[in-house]
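During the no-cost extension, the postdoctoral fellow (Dr. R.K.) reprocessed legacy sequence entries with the updated structure-token encoder. One reprocessed record is reproduced below for audit purposes.
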Amino acid sequence: MRKGYTLTSFLLSLLCALLLLPLLVSSFKAAAVLPFHYRENGDEIALRQMRRILAVSYERECRGSELCFRYQGEEYRFYEVNQRLVLSPGTQIFLEEVEKVFFFTQEGALILHYERGKDSYERVLCAERGIHLESLPECDAGDDGGDDAASAASAELSADPD
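Re-encoded structure tokens follow.
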């Protein structure tokens, strides 16, 4: 019995490698796109969490780069520190690498404006009681109009008799 590879075993290993090559290339393509969508997906998750908190909060007050409100009987606030949007008390980070953040109300909607690099974003966080989010004007930059959490919060707020 001879030791080493024969031509057939070499061709067989080459065939296996060539069959796995498209799988390897497609995984590298998917991995190359991942970092570009990571920040957007993280922002959407954070914004949905903010909407859920604000949907059941009350006594909201916008103070430029700070949003103060009452939630579960305690005072909370969103504010920007070290290029992060933070909820306190505590230090729960919602958005990272933001250069400028401010909150404002427009036609009954509470809106978050933030800038990251050259891009600026405006997102509707919640509506005042009795106002449906669908009846509000759309934001210019990146409004996600069909947000299920915001729609649910709007329906919950409008159903509340208070």
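Helices lie at 7-55, 148-159. The chain has one domain: 37-159. The remaining legacy entries will be reprocessed before the final report is submitted.
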